[in-house]
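Case study 2.
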Amino acid sequence: MAQHAVRDASVQEIRVRLVTVVTATFLHSDIMKRLRYMCAQPAITYYAWQVEVMLNNFIKNGVPPKDIDVVCAVAEEDTTQWHKLSDKYSDTGFYFYEDSREDKSYIPSIVPHLLAKHFKRNPDLQNDAIFHFDVDMIFTKPVDWNTYLTDDI
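Prediction:
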C-alpha cells in the first residue's frame, strides 16, 4: 500500500511539471539552465517512424540533438529499429524503461509513468526547463525560447 502512495506521488509530481511546461511557465533562467525537449511513448513500430520524422524536423529547425530526450517504454515488440534510431541520432538521448503500470488500458497514462521514472533516474533534470511534446508534432519554423527562459514567471 505504501509503495502505491510513493508511485502516485511521483506521477502527480510529473503531472504538475507537465502542466507547468505546457502553459509555458518556465522558471527564471538562474534556476533553469538548459531547455530540454522531451517526448515519452511506447517503444513500438507505430511511434518509431513518428520519432524519426520529429527528430529530422526538430534538428532542421535548430534544436540541438543533445537537448532532446526520447523516453520509451520497452514493450513486447522487438526494439531493433529503436536501437537503429538511437545509433543514427547518436547525439540524442534515447532512454528505455520497463512499463510497470498496473493498469495499461489507457495508453496515454504511459507518459507520466515514463517521465516519473526518467526524472527519478536523472535528478539533474530538475535544473532544466522541460518542453514536453507528443511525437506527432512538428515545427513550421525555428522557435525563440529565450523570452520564456529569461522572464520571472
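The helical segments are 2-22, 45-60, 80-88, 110-121, 146-150.
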